[in-house]
Here is the input.
Amino acid sequence: MTNVIRSVEHVVHLLPQTKQLRALHASIRDRHAQREDFVFNASRIIRLLVEAGLELLPFEPHDVQTPVGRTYHGLRVSSQICGVSIARAGESMEVELRAVAPGVRIGKILIQRDTTTKLPHLFYAKLPDDIADRHVLLLDPMLATGGTALAAIEVLLGRGVPQEHVVFINLLSAPEGIAAVHERFPLVRMVTSSIEERLNENAYMLPGIGDFGDRYFGTDVLV
Here is the structure.
């Protein structure tokens, strides 16, 4: 899968692998982590991811006057944005998006995988009416096989959103999922904090984190 990742480096934006980020990952990947620690440290990583996603949006010049009467030649986002979370795990990322973009509109998509066919099925989608005119931050902590991601992006494109206006933000990404998304939608950009080794026979990422949604929302089975 290394060659696959190299071929999509222009659309996959990996957070700098700093010591602090690796420490945060060690905390949330620990199977014995307390839920409050998991949520706190996962939220710190998500904030970094959202900031990186916003960096990929188009900007335009924006000059302001400083308190000492000088002009600062700055920038501002030149297009409207919205977030779209893939329920349920994607909802964990909404708080951090709202923290850095107050008032941002957030849509939701619910896709569930058939237990027999393993194919994703769309159950619910509620999106801003003008989403076709916005850049979209698509939120889902996990990109494994890519099936759910492909279905969600199809929904966005069906509402008129151009591929190049979608930034897909993940906490963890498997090479298989990255390859699947890029093959179908080569203009969609992806932001992640970790590219995992591979998927196991049950489509769990290795070294992985387990079921992110269960661990974040406290619905995992305690052992």
